[in-house]
Fold this sequence. Notes:
The complex is a heterodimer.
Chain A lengths: L3 E4 L2 E4 L5 E7 L5 E7 L5 E9 L2 E4 L7 E6 L2 E6 L8 E8 L7 E2 L3 E5 L1
Parallel strand pairs in A: 2-11
Antiparallel strand pairs in A: 1-3, 3-8, 4-5, 4-9, 5-6, 7-8, 9-10, 9-11
Chain B lengths: L3 E2 L4 E5 L4 E7 L6 E7 L6 E7 L4 E3 L3 E6 L4 E6 L8 E9 L4 E4 L3 E6 L1
Parallel strand pairs in B: 2-11
Antiparallel strand pairs in B: 1-3, 3-8, 4-5, 4-9, 6-7, 7-8, 9-10, 9-11
Amino acid sequence: DADVTQTPRNRITKTGKRIMLECSQTKGHDRMYWYRQDPGLGLRLIYYSFDVKDINKGEISDGYSVSRQAQAKFSLSLESAIPNQTALYFCATSRLAGNEQFFGPGTRLTVL
Amino acid sequence: GESVGLHLPTLSVQEGDNSIINCAYSNSASDYFIWYKQESGKGPQFIIDIRSNMDKRQGQRVTVLLNKTVKHLSLQIAATQPGDSAVYFCAEMGGSNYKLTFGKGTLLTVNP
């Protein structure tokens, strides 16, 4: 499903580097989310945004920042990457009042 | 604290059999409970949800049961097919912020 796209799909970086993960959607949804998935664990919410002017911290926001550049774009930044941020990152979108979240294909990030 | 967890990390079934995936939750205030399917290399995909005031809901080949007395949620898949092989996550949603809290997932393997 190409409605929610993420770039890059894979990234290897070094400790201390600044990294930006990008998410774009063509679904016209107001709400966007960033999740992190670690092996053996479920997804954990990093940040979420209900519209362009709204940004909220999730469960594990430390070490991350986000920018909602437009309704269709929500980027996640790691200002100074560390090895324990190695994980699979997912962007998701949802309607203004809906339970279903639509997930992108994920970005696999490795911090050496 | 609030948590959503799973009884079994793995489940192996024969093609054509029915599958039952279980989930325990602890937050009685959740408004909705949701099942997601995640195939290898893909983002989670919504399967079905159930509102907290219901005890059963049926979809195509799937049924979700909610037992609020024991805080238990299950997903039943009828006539399991190889394409059903995936990790299944339960998640809960509560409050006005539509945040999802995911469980750790169950790996379902369908043997031909």
